[in-house]
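Hi V.,

Quick status before I head out on leave. The structure for the redesign project is tokenized and pasted below; the design run finished overnight.
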């Protein structure tokens, strides 16, 4: 595994919050979720699954343009110039509302209406 992937897993393990950006008609659309939610769904260096309660605009945006970016960060992971490391994750995504993966998400998060499934294409270290 390469250094950005190793660091990404460390940062995700310590991250409190995940910022999620899609492209909408009016420009970037930003939502977020808790790092704990993502960790509970066994993230890997290939995919991230996020429980989706609302995310209606995110779903509309992805139907038009499936590109997505996520930003995770933690002050508890050593960065290149001091405490704190961030990772910008680029990829594609879809919001599923049925199927075995959604059933698994709902077992962990009964309030979820679906699963935001992100396929990781690139990880860039920041800080």
């Amino acid at each position: 595994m390469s250094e950005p992937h190793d660091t990404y897993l460390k940062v995700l393990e310590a991250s409190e919050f995940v910022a999620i950006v899609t492209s909408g008609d009016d420009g970037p659309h930003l939502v977020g979720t808790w790092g704990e939610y993502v960790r509970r769904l066994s993230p890997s260096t290939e995919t991230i699954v996020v429980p989706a309660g609302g995310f209606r605009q995110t779903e509309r945006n992805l139907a038009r343009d499936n590109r997505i970016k996520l930003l995770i960060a933690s002050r508890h992971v050593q960065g290149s110039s001091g405490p704190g490391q961030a990772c910008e994750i680029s990829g594609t995504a879809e919001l599923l509302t049925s199927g075995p993966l959604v059933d698994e998400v709902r077992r962990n998060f009964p309030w979820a209406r679906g699963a935001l499934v992100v396929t990781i294409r690139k990880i860039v270290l920041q800080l």
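Above is the designed sequence. The two ends are 21 Å apart (CA to CA).

G. will cover questions while I'm gone.

Best,
W.
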